Amino acid sequence: MTNSVSAVKVVNVKANRWLLHVALQTMEMARNPAMLQEMMRQQDRAMSNLEVSCITYCVLCFVCY
């Protein structure tokens, strides 16, 4: 097996684990409104942190409008 083939397999395994994690987290948010609120709060905080930079803010405005 070549290095590139094994590297692709490693990437696929990591992507599958990430997708499983996202799916489980989504199901948990559907069952738990407090977790949904926390995830929304974290997303809002992340966007606020991005807006601090003038350049980032301008890019966000360009992308969003």
Summarize the structure.
With 65 residues, the chain is mainly alpha-helical. It has three helices and no strands.
Walk me through this protein's architecture:
With 65 residues, the protein is mainly alpha-helical. The protein folds into 2 domains: 31 residues; 33 residues, no CATH class. Helices cover 91% and strands 0% of the residues. The protein is built from 3 helices and no strands. α1 packs across α2. The protein is flat. The protein starts with a helix and ends with a helix. The mean pLDDT is 78.
**Cα-based radius of gyration, to the nearest Å:** 18 Å
Instruction: Look at the structure and give the mean pLDDT.
Output: 78
Q: How would a textbook summarize the main sheet? A: none
The run of helices and strands is HHH
Distance from N terminus to C terminus (CA atoms, Å) equals: 48 Å
What is the overall shape? Answer: flat
Beta-strand proportion: under 5%
* SS field, number of helical segments: 3
Number of domains: 2
Q: Please identify the structural class as seen in this structure.
A: mainly alpha
Strand elements, count: 0
> Stretches where pLDDT falls below 50 for ≥5 residues?
none
